[in-house]
């Protein structure tokens, strides 16, 4: 499909909106009440620090709602105002935060049901309003909703759109897009739907496997060995590439793109690894024919990760990282704490703390566990950060629970 042409025609449709409805003032009060926090504003003014009895709390200097998320949530509220009686759907969680999604449910916004991992659009009718979330939707979903005669309110973050433009550029110039992301994450699904030929790599280790394959081809392995390596490669990446992907044909010209919430340092390292590999394989004079540089790392993700690196340099007894369990950027913040050996707890809601001195949290890559006792005795230095989808109000409630426990 010519995704650029489709997007152009969609953007001209009078059933498509990606700029809001000019009702920001009407929804400002509800947004402030639901998501903002006076306590957090005071802590920010106080150098991101709070002292309370035996508790010293230090917040990261960038955390919580990014502007892309704020924009998407505000647009969803405006949509409800603008269409007070119409049926409103959303194709997915607007952002990865349970409290924000619950507020939308309370406003009678319906979530597209998912059956066996597949979205069921059968109930969506002509004239319904459908919101696309901050991390976007696949081009096939947009096409279906457009053909169904729905009003589409597109809250896709401009940073995500920028990545889509990048992979479309790769497609136009017959480059394969190497996407650093999580294969099943909605944003990566959307990005790959705009790409031509693509391969998703989760991390540096997977990127290294791809680069090893590229370089082994250059050394002209014997045909039997090459066929075995090819089979092994496809077994590993079968679910992470475009249909008909052929590693011997499709790894000759590469561009890199990313899921905007991946660990910035890793995305950059993956970019450099592919550049070095193509340089080694094809030589400096041919590099531009085989590798396209990129710049699609979102500022907000970068700021939050940089602030986390500064926070974990301070003396801390423990960390609390707040954000949805399916939130990629929150998980990366937790990874930073864990990599420094800090006792760190990833929670999605304040209710995970208590009753009593206990916490229910999600260690990296594992299921929820309960830890009791949670807070040790004596003076305590606690670092706190939150992912880009977490409202300040949630951070305030977490601090409130920590204070209650420390005072008990
Ligand atoms: S984290 Fe970045 S890309 Fe994602 S919504 Fe926020 S500003 Fe946009």
Description:
The chain is α/β, with parallel strands linked by helices and 408 residues long. The chain folds into three domains: 36-65 and 300-407, Cobalt-precorrin-4 Transmethylase, domain 1; 69-156, Rossmann fold; 159-297, Cobalt-precorrin-4 Transmethylase, domain 1. It is 45% helix and 16% strand. The chain is built from 16 helices and 18 strands. The chain has helices spanning 3-11, 24-35, 38-45, 67-82, 98-106, 139-147, 158-172, 186-194, 204-218, 223-237, 247-250, 264-282, 287-290, 299-311, 328-339, 392-407, and strands at residues 16-17, 49-52, 55-59, 88-90, 109-111, 114-115, 118-119, 129-132, 151-154, 176-180, 198-201, 254-258, 291-292, 318-322, 344-347, 359-361, 369-371, 380-386. Strands 1-9-8-4-5 form a five-stranded parallel sheet, sandwiched between helices. The protein has a five-stranded mixed sheet with strand order 2-3-18-14-15, sandwiched between helices. It has a four-stranded parallel sheet with strand order 11-10-12-13, sandwiched between helices. Strand 2 and strand 3 form a beta hairpin. It is globular and about 70 Å long. It starts with a helix and ends with a helix. The relative contact order is 0.14. The model has no long low-confidence stretch (mean pLDDT 93). Bound molecules: iron/sulfur cluster (SF4). Iron/sulfur cluster binds next to helix 4, helix 7 and helix 14.
């Amino acid at each position: 499909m010519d995704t650029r042409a489709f997007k152009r025609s969609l953007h001209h449709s009078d059933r498509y909106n990606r700029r809001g409805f000019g009702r920001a003032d009407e929804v400002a009060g509800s947004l402030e009440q639901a998501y903002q926090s006076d306590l957090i504003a005071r802590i920010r003014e106080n150098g991101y620090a709070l002292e309370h009895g035996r508790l010293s709390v230090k917040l990261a200097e960038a955390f919580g709602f990014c502007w892309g998320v704020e924009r998407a949530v505000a647009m969803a509220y405006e949509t409800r105002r603008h269409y007070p009686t119409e049926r409103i759907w959303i194709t997915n969680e607007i952002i990865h935060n349970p409290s924000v999604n619950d507020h939308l449910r309370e406003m009678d916004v319906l979530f597209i049901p998912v059956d066996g991992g597949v979205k069921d659009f059968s109930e969506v009718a002509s004239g319904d309003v459908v919101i696309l979330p901050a991390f976007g939707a696949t081009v096939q979903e947009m096409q279906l909703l457009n053909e169904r005669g729905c009003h589409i309110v597109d809250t896709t973050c401009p940073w995500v759109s920028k990545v889509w433009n990048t992979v479309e550029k790769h497609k136009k110039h017959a480059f394969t897009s190497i996407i650093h992301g999580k294969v099943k994450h909605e944003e990566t699904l959307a990005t790959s739907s705009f790409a031509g030929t693509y391969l998703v790599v989760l991390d540096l280790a997977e990127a290294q496997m791809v680069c090893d394959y590229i370089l082994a081809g250059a050394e002209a392995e014997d045909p039997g060995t090459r066929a075995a390596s090819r089979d092994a490669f496809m077994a590993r990446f079968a679910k992470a590439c475009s249909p008909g992907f052929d590693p011997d044909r499709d790894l000759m010209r590469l561009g890199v793109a990313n899921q905007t919430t991946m660990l910035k340092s890793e995305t950059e390292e993956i970019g450099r690894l592919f550049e070095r590999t193509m340089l080694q394989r094809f030589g400096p004079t041919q590099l531009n024919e085989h590798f396209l540089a990129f710049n699609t790392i979102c500022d907000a993700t970068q700021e939050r990760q940089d602030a986390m690196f500064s926070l974990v340099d301070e003396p801390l007894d423990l960390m609390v990282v707040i954000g949805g369990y399916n939130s990629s950027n929150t998980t990366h913040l937790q990874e930073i704490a864990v990599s420094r050996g800090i006792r760190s707890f990833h929670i999605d809601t304040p209710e995970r703390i208590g009753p009593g001195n206990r916490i229910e949290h999600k260690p990296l890559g594992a299921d929820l566990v309960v830890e009791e006792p949670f807070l040790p005795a004596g003076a305590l230095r606690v670092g706190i950060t939150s992912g880009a989808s977490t409202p300040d109000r949630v951070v305030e409630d977490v601090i409130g629970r920590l204070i209650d426990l420390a005072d008990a």
